[in-house]
Structure formats: structure tokens, C-alpha cells
Amino acid sequence: MNIRVEHIEKRYSNHTALDDVSFEVPDQSVFGLLGPNGAGKTSLIRIITRITGPDSGTIYFGNEPSRPDHIYQIGYMPEERGLYKKMEVGEQAIYFAQLKGMSRSDAVKELRYWFDKFEIRPWWKKKVEELSKGMAQKVQFIVTVVHKPDLLILDEPFTGFDPVNTNLIKDELLRLNKKGITILLSTHRMESVEELCSHIVLINKAKNVLHGSVKEIRKQYRSGVFEVRYKGHPVSLVAGLWGPYELLKNHDEGDHHYAQIKLSDPEQTNTLIQSLISEVQVLSFNELIPAMNDIFINAVKEKGEIVESEN
Amino acid sequence: MGKTALIIKREYLTRIRKKSFIIMTILGPLLMGGLVALSIYLAMQSQDSVSVVKVIDETGMIFDKLPESKMVVYEKDTMPIAIAREIFNSDQYYGILYIPQHAAAKPDSITLFTSKQPSPSVVTIIEKNLEQVIEEKNFSNAGLSKSMLDSLKASVAVLQRSVAADAAEKEFSAGVTAGVGFVGGLLIYLFIFLYGVQVMRGVMEEKSSRIIEVMISSVKPFELMMGKIIGLALVGLTQFLLWVVLTMIVTTAVSSAMTGKSEQVMEKMEQMQKENMIPNDAMHHPPPAIGQTEIFKALGSLNIGKILFAFVFYFLGGYLLYSALFAAIGGAVDNETDTQQFMLPITIPLILAYIVGASVMANPDSSLGYWFSIIPFTSPVVMMVRMPFDPPWIDLIISMIALVAGFIFTTWIAGRIYRTGILMYGKKITWKELGKWIFYKS
Q1: Dihedral over Cα of A51, A56, A58, A59: its sign
Q2: B51-152 classified as CATH 3.40.190.10
Q3: Who is most buried in A33, A187, B281, B347, counting CB within 10 A?
Q4: CATH of the domain at A269
Q5: What is the Cβ-side half-sphere exposure of residue B49, based on CA atoms within 13 angstroms?
Q6: Is ipTM strictly over 0.95?
Q7: Average pLDDT over residues B329-341
Q8: B218 and A84 in contact by Cβ < 8 A?
């Protein structure tokens, strides 16, 4: 499902949570909602999930402004999540599925499938308080996706998950995405963006700082730095470099070296390679792609904002 | 199934299945039965203890007239009081009653010596007996004979009948009918407190365990709040109903187990009443004792249907009014300790209702009773107390409308505080803040 966020504003008595934020979540994308804590991510998610309303602006689901029954198409896993401790796992999962509009029998059938998949079937009759944290996290994920939503919204999905579960969830998210489900996830951990997201929006201090497809953004923030692994003397390498090249770094790795070279025109790679192979033996040549983290910091700096550091 | 229905079902089932619910439901009537059994047992036990009091009567006229009773037995002794006190042995005697020479003229000089604190009931009996003897003596000194005196006395027991034009005149005993209303009011009061606090705890559980946000993405906060309130009301009604049924079973069982002894107990109780409580002049004209038949007659005179309807109405109305407020508190605060400051304004009208209810029982048609049975915050308890006295229909209708309006109003306010509060963490909540929440747009 295609989501459009248009000119959303949300003010609380003493601060602005969202200031004229607009972007589009393309259909079937894995969309990253990025930004430091306090940037307004959760406020925005709460508006999309209709928990709160915006002061102004509109959210479009497909081509129509959001309606109350759109929430049935959303699976939402909040950052702060919990389950009823005294309730049995299965009963509780059925309850949440029913609240999402599923019939009891459908819920049971679908939940059995997920419980088997995550290998937690034996826990069906246990109370939540008896579960380990990892088990509870799996249950939490299942109740988010069980009603087959078209749009999955996950607020900081990987905080509090152990590495094994994180991978399990990541794989599951990618699989669901392949089946056509749009995924919107908010995070301040850039490494999960690299692995998962096709599109992002970067929000800082209530404003949209940057948005678009990850590929485009990478291209935009491309540094033109290439890494060369070669055999030969660094002096010869330097001798081969003239004109629009700049040697940033060179270090020794025993019988070979690594060098980082910046091209003023990143498309001129062949010329560089030609001049290099005449001087040294090139073992490998590849572009250093900017990490999302660096883009994030750069984008924020460009806007003259200060990033609050996050763990 | 509607969302609210789903929530009601969950709230109801999880609570009904709880061990604490089952235990309380079974224990409640058992405790009641136990209490009845214990009081019967105690009444029979006290039969055995007889206090023997040694009397040193310097007047030589009082001892002979002192009546014997099952609880106190008098024994005459002639030794001087100083010696008697010296050789007093508490194993043989309960105490020494010293009646000095001029006791008739100065009754205050009579002294009871005991080794330990004497029991009030024994002292009362001794005092009554002495009063009787001295009074009779004074009467005869004044030239009045007992029979003359008796003929002068008037004893009136007003027959109480309702003016209602029913074919059979209703007889009722004010004490019993008032009791029915008060017990009803008390139950409503307890129910509001117990279940109101449970609503608050439930909301706090959802908030502090962060279930709320998962919930709120699929149901409206108001649905969630009402689901919880209604679910708990049903739990309360279930418990109440089970209590009534079980209490009836248990008390029937207890009393039938003790049937053989019950007559004995009644006799004993009457005996105690005569000895302790009833002033001696009344003894000669005992008022018609309120026996079981009298109680049933009194109960029969009540308009049971009307009272029962009022009970269920005020039971639910009062609960809905208050539990919405309790839910709002639960939604607003982060932890139990913060609830205190907000609980107080809710508990005060409730406690006030209870206090006013107690006074209205004595004077059901006072203007105090009228106003407090109209104001929705106190009407569930106070109107219930008034019910057996057949308040005018117009009062009842105004009060009921006010209560419905009241709970719609508190639910509206509470819903607005609740929906903002449940998503608000780590903020110090003030009254001003709550006021602002009421006027936020969603």
C-alpha cells in the first residue's frame, strides 16, 4: 500500500513535534523512518496509525485520506510494547487478532502457523509471565503480523531483541515484503537501514531533512572515494596519480597495500585504473560507499542542525 | 463481535478465572457463616460463667432483697471489710461488694472490690440490682407501695402502620426496614470502592506494562475504558450473586446444624437482655420482643420489587459514575503512589455519602436526606437508605435522571483525561494538567 504524508504538523503545548513533514512511502517498499530520539518519529507513527490526529495536514492510504477502518490494514508494533502477564499466550494472541477484526477460527488457524514457524507452539498454554524475554518478543511480533496487514509499522523494532531474534525478525520482514507487504520502520540504528530499507526519510527536530530511495541518496552523497588494493611500491602508485586524483590514505598490509583515492569525477574510473595498472599490480578496485550513518550526520549538518548523539 | 464486547469478555473471563476471585467468592459466605456460628457459640459459652460476689452489707437490709441471676450470685458475709479485703481470694470470689451503713442515703458510697478489671456486664447487673432494691426501699419510705406505683405507670408501644390504601394494612417495624436500606447502601458503597479501585489497577497495569499502545492501535481509548468498566461491573455482579446464593446455603446449613440448640440460645439471649440492657421498670411491661416472625412481617411490608430495582439501578449507576473517575486516575498516573492525591477528591464524596446515609436512616425525610439523595455523587448510597421509607416517586425519578446525567458527564470527562493520560509517560501530573487534557482535541 502506498502511503503519502502531506504537510503534517503536530504541536504540543510546549514544543513542536512535527513541522510540515511530507514524504511518500512507495508501495511494497521497506521504508526507514530515521532520526534521533525526540525527532518526532513516534508522533508521526501515532498519526499514521490514527492513535492521535495531526493539527493539520493529511495522510493518504493509496489515494484516499485515511479513514478509521484503515487501521485493520495496519500491523503496528510500538516501541514500548507489552502483553498481559497473567494471560495465556494463545488466548492473548487470539484476543489481539480478534481486535484486529479476525474471526476466532481464522485467528486460531493463522496463529498455529506462526507458532509452529517460530517454534513456540509448546508455549500456547503458558502464561506470558512464564516466558523468556525472547519468547515474548516472538509472540509480540506474531500478534503484529497475524491479521495479514498490507502495511506493517514497526517503531524501533530491534531494540530489546537479542541478536538471534533480530535476525529472525529481519528475515521474516524481508519475506513478508517480497509477498507485497509495505513495511515502515523507525529506527535510529543505521546499520539495520543498510540491510533492509529501500527508501528512507530522515527527520530531525520535527522537520523532514532528507528523503528518497536509498540508492538515490547514496548517489547524492557519493564521496568519489575508491579503495585500491595493490602490489608494488607506494611511490610508484603516487607517480601514477596525476591530474584529478587525490591520495587520501595508504597503508601497508605485508605484501600488499591499501590506498584510498578520491576522484573529482567519480565516473572517470577507467582512466584511473589505466594510470594505476601501468605503475602497480592492482588486486582489487572498488568504490567506498558512504555509510547511512555518515549521510545522516552530513545531512543534519548541512541543515545547520546539531545531532544529539545516540548510543 | 464488537470490539467493546471483546474487551468486556476478556476482562470478565480473566478475572473470573483468577484464583483470588474464586477464593474470595467462596470465603465471603464462609466468613459470614462463620460469624453467625461464632456468635451463637459465644452466646452459649457465656452461659457457664457465673460470678460469685461476696456481699458485706452494713445496712443489713439490702442483701436479702438482691435477686439471684444466672450470671451473678451473691453470698453474704459479715466480717469487716478491712479483713475481707485482706483475705480476698479471687479463685473463690469474683469480688467483694461493700455496702456501707448509709448506703441507702448515699448510694455512691457502695464499692465493688475486685482483683482484676471487672467486666462491664457484671458491673451493669450489680448496679441494676442495687438500684432496684434501693429504689423500692425509697418508695416504701415515701409511703408508696409497689402495686400503687405499677398502676401509675404508663407503657406505650406505638403500633406502626402505613397509611397506604392497600387492602391489608401494612405493619412495619422502623428498625428492620431502615436496616434493609442501610445494608443496601453499604453494599453499594463497598462495591464502588472495591471495584472502582480494581478498574484503576487494571488501567494502570495496561499503562505500565505498555500494552496500551498495542491496544490503542486497534481500538479507541473510549472503547477500551468502557470495556474494562463494564467487564468489571459484570464480575462484581457475578460475585455478588454468588455471595447471596452461597451465604443462603451456608447460613441455612449452619443454623440447621445448630437447630437443637437454637431455642436454648434464644432463651439465653432473652435472659441476657433482661439482665443487662432493659431497665427494671420495663421488665414489668416487656415490649413485644422482635422475633423472627416480626422481622419477616416487617420485610413483607416492604415493596421488595421497587427496592430491588432501585438497588440494581443505584448499584450500577453509582459504580459507573465512580469507576470512570477511577479509570481516569489510572490512566493519568505512572505508578500507584501517585494515585493518592487524585484518589482523595473521589473518596471524600463517597465517604460523605456513607456518613449522611447513616444519619438519614434515623431521619429519612430530612432536607439533608433529600439533597444528598439527588446529588449523583452521594445518591447511590443515600437514596438506597431512603428506599424502605417509600420516598415519593418524583424524588426517585429526579435522583435517577441526575445519576444517569452524572455518569454520562464523569465518563465523558474521564474518557478525555484517559485518552491523553494513557500515552503520557514520565510526566508529573498536576490538576492543571488534567484540566488541559479535558479540552485537548484528539
Answers
A1: negative
A2: yes
A3: A33
A4: 3.30.70.1570
A5: 11
A6: no
A7: 83
A8: no
